[in-house]
Structures are given as C-alpha cells and as structure tokens.
Amino acid sequence: MSLLRNKTIIVTGAGGNIGQAYCRGFLEMGANVVAADLNDIGTEAAKWGHADRLMTIAANVLSQPDCDRVAEETVRRFHRIDGLLNNAGFFKSASFGSFLDIPPEEWDLCYQVNVRGTWQSIKAVHAQMKRQGQGSIVNISSNTPYKGVPNFLHYVSSKAAIVGLSRSLAREVGGDGILVNTLCPDLIPDGDIVARQGSAADERTIAGRCLKRTQFPEDMVGAAAFLFSDLAGFITGQSLLVNGGAHFN
Ligand SMILES: NC(=O)c1ccc[n+]([C@@H]2O[C@H](COP(=O)([O-])OP(=O)(O)OC[C@H]3O[C@@H](n4cnc5c(N)ncnc54)[C@H](O)[C@@H]3O)[C@@H](O)[C@H]2O)c1
Q1: Percent of the chain beyond pLDDT 90?
Q2: Looking at domain 8-238, does it have CATH number 2.40.50.140?
Q3: I need a labelling partner for 201 at 20 to 30 A (CA). Which of 19, 131, 169, 230 fits?
Q4: 10 Å Cβ neighbour count for 207?
Q5: Measured from the CB, is residue 225 less than 6 Å from ligand 1?
C-alpha cells in the first residue's frame, strides 16, 4: 500500500503500544517515519523493518531544544516534514480519584506533557511546514472529554484542551497551508491498563459501543494515515472519534 509514499511523518510517544502501531502502519504505507520517544526505542524499532525509511530519536517533549532537534534531524535526513503525530501522553501514570485529591504536581505534569508538549512539538515543525506551504498535524486527544469521565479530571481536561488547541491553531496556520486535526481514541487496553483498571473496564466500555469488541492500537492507524494522506487535504480543525461508536461528535 502506498498511501503515504514520499511523506515524512514524525510520531512522538512512538514507544508505546499505540505509538508503535502508528509507526509500523505508516512504514507499511510507504512513509519515512521519525519515531521519537522519551526512551531510546532503537532496539524495538529495529524489528519494524524498513530501516532505510526509519529514524528513531530519544527526545523529551517537555524540552523545546529536544523538540527542535527532532525537527532538525528529520529535515537533515529526509529533507521535509509532512506530518506530525502528537501521541506522547501522560496517561498510564495518571492517578484515579476525586478531583479534590489530585496532587497539584501531578496535575501540572499531566498538562505539561499532554498540552505543553504538544504545543512545543508543533512550534518545532512549524517553520519547515510553512516553508513547504504544506503540512498536517494530528493531535491525540481522547474519547473521555466527549463521554465525561469522573475521578480522572486532570487527564480528561488536558485532553479536552487538545481539542481547543487544535481548532484554534487550525485557524492560525491554515493560511500557511497547514492542517490541524484531532484523533480521539477510546480505551485501548494493554497489560498496564488491565493491571490498573482490571479487565472489567474493557467489558464496560465495550457495552457502551455500537461495535461490540475491544479496541486495538491498529484501529487508530487507518484514521491517522488518512489525515496525513493527500485524500484529506481539505479537512482541518476537525476531531475524529475512533471509538467504535461509543460517543458521537
Ligand atoms: N491507551 C488508551 O486507552 C488511550 C485512550 C485514549 C487516548 N490515549 C492517548 O494515546 C496516546 C498513547 O497512549 P498509550 O496508551 O500508547 O500510552 P503509553 O504510556 O503506552 O505511551 C506513551 C508514550 O509516550 C512517551 N512519553 C511520555 N512522556 C513523554 C515525554 N515527556 N516526552 C516524550 N515521550 C514521552 C512514553 O515513553 C511512551 O512511550 C496518549 O496520548 C494517550 O493519552 C490512549
């Protein structure tokens, strides 16, 4: 499949289950992929193949110099930045509990990674995309702001902020030829999530969906690839809920 041939796409948070699925999928679809993560994911990424079109970079989205370095190394190796997928997130470490009890430091860290990290990564690629007169930014939000989830206020509100950020930024950079959209996954359980929330959480989530099955990382890949492809060139400022019909936008 060559939907993304000649596209160069940066994926942040590329080391998680979902981040890896995006990278593998984009590589299969012909893209050059820059897989960035807080941790060094070179060993894992070597299993994905397509080494000629893949670069891994250890970078912290909380550091503007790190974000800038990812953009610079991408241009040095692939000469363009067509897409940025802001997938790095503070999710699995976020504690559950009453809004009265969220530690302020945890509230700040959640917003820093999810919102400031997204903003800083976007700032890093903007000049190159503007020079090209073309670029597509996809920010990962969540189904949770649409559903309203109790006892998870910092995470849910930070992901709601991503929707506002994307819509407003779409208006700011549309004139530069840059698209900004949001993808909203529902619960995609992995071992860590099952250990934290139990398998009943997935069963409850499935019960609320039109499509009665578990959501997998691979369910996100087609929607993201579409938004980075030339097929989506007139779509911006939109939020796409990829959630099996759990909630409607
Ligand atoms: N898993 C779900 O059910 C679900 C549902 C809705 C939305 N999401 C969102 O999808 C994204 C990926 O989720 P996941 O389940 O794969 O999470 P994960 O924790 O498995 O992966 C997140 C990745 O981000 C990286 N990361 C964390 N902080 C970073 C930083 N400061 N700088 C750079 N990288 C950093 C981590 O190293 C990790 O590899 C997140 O934004 C999350 O909020 C997940």
Answers
A1: 96
A2: no
A3: 19
A4: 9
A5: no
